[in-house]
TrEMBL record:
One of its GO terms (molecular function) is structural constituent of nuclear pore. InterPro entries: Nup84/Nup107 (IPR007252). This is Nuclear pore complex protein. Keywords: Acetylation, Centromere, Chromosome, Kinetochore, Membrane, Methylation, mRNA transport, Nuclear pore complex, Nucleus, Phosphoprotein, Protein transport, Translocation, Transport. Part of the nuclear pore complex (NPC). Forms part of the Nup160 subcomplex in the nuclear pore which is composed of NUP160, NUP133, NUP107 and Nup96; this complex plays a role in RNA export and in tethering Nup98 and NUP153 to the nucleus. Does not interact with TPR. Interacts with ZNF106. Functions as a component of the nuclear pore complex (NPC).
Length: 814
């Protein structure tokens, strides 16, 4: 027997279904399509007034997939490869169990949601007027939810069984015979013709002949009888009494069909004024001698010498649980037997306790009491949990194993309305549960929660979160992540969806998943901010300044991730302020690590119109006279500071490259002397002069560009040194926060590193560009100015060194 639980708790499900064979691929495709289908219906009907339309859609999806996988299993059964068949068969069983569970949820919660209201007139009528058995039981079902819902469970179990024998009646009719015990009749006729008497064979053909005569029927008829009784019971088990009766008639046993009708409750419309005067007398309904019939059924079903399935047939009709259990081989069968008995006893007890039930006029004797064994079955609607405990401890190993099946446990909790036990069990399953089981659990939780059923919030969140992580881990279901993340609390939404987005590097997918998040109602600004901050924290955010400021460190893979992470914040124009803040933070990290190239790559990730967009976004929600918030204003200012610094550094690199790699070589004359006899021709002299002129022009052009680049570097660096109100200095206080304090600390460190660094670069440029020594004095004045107080950013050692360099340069001007 295939262990279906392996498909529920194998962490690799549904990956375990991967196979090169087309059939196996089809099974996997069918199972994977469930995830998308359930999400589609959840978004379509999840907020609908009629939530049960959603459950019906779930059932339909499961039924379609069950049919498909069953078909595949049928094909694989005939071909090679046992494992592929077991795989398909296992999935078929799971789909069937899930469909059945959704069917149970729909039936029970429809009843639980329906508000049964009864006016005083109806109650008075029920108590004061004489009524028939059927009317009394109908009233019982109307007012007693326990009885009504127990019957719903019976109907559900019977519907499940009916699915299994669908089409069975039509198939059996092809083999039906209008004569019962055909082989026995043939032998009797043959013996009569031959004058032979068989002492073991019955000689009369009435139904009671074997018992009365203590003789046997023909062996073939006995086997046919066993099969017929087994099939009749399967129809009774499936709630198809009419089909069972038809089967009896078509097999030559109309008398047995009549015995299956005796359970119907008596009702005489003529006595209850249910029939209108125009209709006259109408037929009486039900069995007026039901008490006698039930006693006979009990006696037959209690006699262990009778066929087990015959006992079970009549045991099901009269409430004999032991008779039904004798042929029960599954969890469903045992549950059906117990609930069938419970409802039968509840209705029988109600009939006996109702004093105003009319006695049928056909009854000439006092009502026949039921035997003590009926009432000693010790099963009551108030002890339904004991029923399940009894089934779990059944002597049948298969039944005990089926009790551990997750679907049966969930069905138990739904029937008992024990959501606490279900959620506790869900928590136990999380580590080993497959995606299929988690999908099922999550959709039950979402349905019940929307319906208003109380569930433990923490347990629900953990279950949904586990499902979200499974969807993330399986790349084929990434498009579903946003929908189910939205079912989590805000904090968990941000944590889980940001963790999901961190691994997405393709820009098209990034945009797609953000759009899905927007459709699902997720907090995109908070999520994308966390994505960037999480990636930014790789390697730690508290980097110290590189000890050797002259060394440009290479861009690592982690650095590139930090650079690319800024793209998460530029999709939505409303997030440009946050984009600026995060961009500034990443650039501060890179500058502290002496990674100017990386800082520049981050800077260019921000669209050039971002500041304009930020102002437009603000003015769209506030008056033009209202200034930007302090944090936004400071972010813009810091971004402009970074722009100035990176521009200065880039211009220095261009100057440095031009100075050291672009300088043309000085021309070396090829003609060193000429003789009076004209050993060098005039054309050669002209060519030599031309080459010297070209070389001089190149050097002159190079020198002009060098001076131009020097001027550019000076302008760019002075833009930083003389930045209005100070480079990397906030103009407005945006409040005290841990993040703000760390930012201020970083900017302070960068000022102490970058200002001396740029000052030395400027001094180098001035000294190495044609001896512009006098301008070094201007730099000294700027650094020493009390207006800018840049000298405060130098350590004593740094101050001494740069002043010594300036002094050497100025000496050369003397």
């Amino acid at each position: 027997m295939l262990d279906e639980s392996a498909f529920l708790f194998d962490p690799e499900t549904p990956h375990r279904f991967k196979s090169k064979e087309q059939d196996a691929v089809s099974v996997e495709s069918a199972s994977m399509s469930l995830f998308t289908d359930f999400k589609t219906f959840l978004t379509r009907y999840g907020s609908s007034v009629d939530l049960f339309q959603l459950v019906d859609s779930y059932m339909e999806v499961c039924e379609d997939n069950e049919s498909l996988v069953r078909s595949l299993a049928g094909k694989l059964r005939k071909g090679p490869g046992l494992y592929r068949f077991e795989m398909a068969d296992g999935m078929h069983k799971l789909m069937k169990q899930e469909k059945q569970t959704w069917r149970l949820i729909s039936a029970l919660y429809k009843d639980r949601q329906a508000s049964a209201t009864y006016d005083d007139e109806n109650v008075f009528f029920f108590q004061a007027n004489n009524i028939s058995e059927r009317k009394a039981v109908e009233k019982l079902f109307e007012v007693n939810s326990d009885v009504r819902q127990a019957q719903i469970v019976i109907d559900w179990l019977e519907q499940n069984a009916a699915d299994e024998i669908e089409g069975e009646a039509d198939r059996l009719r092809n083999y039906a015979s209008a004569v019962s015990w055909e082989n026995t009749l043939h032998r009797l006729n043959r013996n009569k013709e031959q004058g032979i008497e068989d002492p073991n064979l019955i000689y009369e053909m009435d139904p009671d002949a074997p018992t009365r005569l203590k003789r046997e029927i023909d062996d073939l008829d006995r086997e046919d009888e066993k099969q017929l009784l087994k099939i009749i019971f399967s129809f009774i088990r499936a709630g198809k009494i009419e089909e069972a009766e038809d089967l009896c008639v078509t097999h030559g046993q109309p008398w047995r069909a009549a015995t299956l009708e005796g359970w119907r409750l008596h009702n005489d419309p003529n006595m209850n004024n249910d029939a209108s005067e125009d209709m006259g007398l109408v037929p009486i309904e039900g069995n007026p001698h039901r008490d006698l019939w039930k006693l006979a059924c009990w006696t037959l079903s209690s006699d262990e010498t009778n066929n087990a399935h015959e006992r079970a047939i009549y045991g099901a009709l009269c409430g004999n649980m032991d008779a039904m259990l004798s042929v029960s081989s599954s969890w469903d069968d045992h549950l059906w037997a117990h609930y069938k008995t419970m409802v039968d006893m509840a209705t029988e007890r109600h009939i006996q306790q109702t004093a105003n039930i009319m006695k049928p006029w056909q009854c000439v004797v006092k009502r026949v009491p039921l035997p003590d064994g009926y009432w000693k079955q010790n099963i009551d609607l108030g002890d339904c949990d004991l029923v399940f405990n009894k089934i779990e401890n059944s002597n049948d190993q298969i039944v005990r194993e089926e009790s551990d099946n997750p679907y049966h446990f969930i069905q138990r909790c739904i029937i008992l309305n024990d959501m606490e036990a279900m959620m506790d069990k869900c928590l136990e399953w999380l580590d080993d549960a497959s995606m299929q089981l988690l999908r099922f659990l999550v959709h039950i939780i979402l349905f019940l929660r929307t319906l208003g059923v109380h569930l433990q919030t923490e347990h629900c969140d953990k279950t949904i979160e586990a499902y979200v992580r499974k969807l993330i881990a399986d790349g084929r279901t990434n498009h579903l992540v946003a929908t189910y993340t939205a079912a989590l609390p805000s904090e968990l939404q941000i944590i889980n969806y940001s963790a999901f987005l961190e691994a997405i590097t393709d820009s098209n997918l990034q945009k797609e998943y953000l759009e899905l998040a927007l459709e699902a109602g997720l907090e995109i600004p908070a999520i994308t901010k966390r994505v960037v901050e999480s990636i930014r924290s790789i390697g730690g955010v508290n980097q110290t300044v590189a000890p050797d400021s002259s060394i440009e460190l290479p861009v690592t893979i982690d650095d590139q991730r930090k650079i690319d992470s800024i793209e998460w914040l530029v999709f939505d124009p409303s997030q440009r302020c946050e984009a600026l803040k995060q961009c500034n933070a990443v650039m501060r990290q890179f500058l502290a690590s002496r990674k100017h190239e990386a800082a520049h790559d981050v800077f260019v990730k921000i669209p050039s119109d971002s500041i304009d967009i930020l102002y437009n976004e603000w003015h769209a929600q506030a008056d033009k006279d209202v200034p930007l918030p302090a944090d936004a204003d400071n972010a813009i200012r810091e971004h402009l500071c970074m722009k100035a610094y990176l521009g200065a550094h880039t211009s220095f690199k261009e100057w440095f490259k031009h100075l050291h790699t672009s300088k043309p070589q000085e021309y070396q004359p090829t003609i060193h002397q000429t003789s009076t006899f004209g050993s060098v021709s005039i054309p050669e002299l002209v060519a030599e002069e031309h080459r010297q002129k070209v070389s001089a022009d190149k050097i002159s052009a190079w020198d002009d560009k060098l001076r131009s680049l020097c001027d550019l570097v000076c302008d760019k660096i002075y833009n930083v040194l003389l930045f209005p109100q100070g480079w990397l200095m906030d103009m407005r206080d945006d409040g005290d926060s841990e993040e703000g304090e760390w930012r201020n600390h970083q900017m302070g460190l960068l000022r102490r590193v970058c200002i001396p660094y740029l000052s030395n670069l400027l001094l180098t440029v001035l000294v190495d560009t044609g001896g512009r020594y006098k301008e070094c004095g201007q730099l000294a004045n700027v650094l020493a100015s009390e207006e800018y107080k840049l000298y405060e950013l130098f350590t004593k050692q740094e101050g001494k060194e740069i002043m010594k360099r300036i002094q050497k340069a100025l000496i050369k001007t003397l």
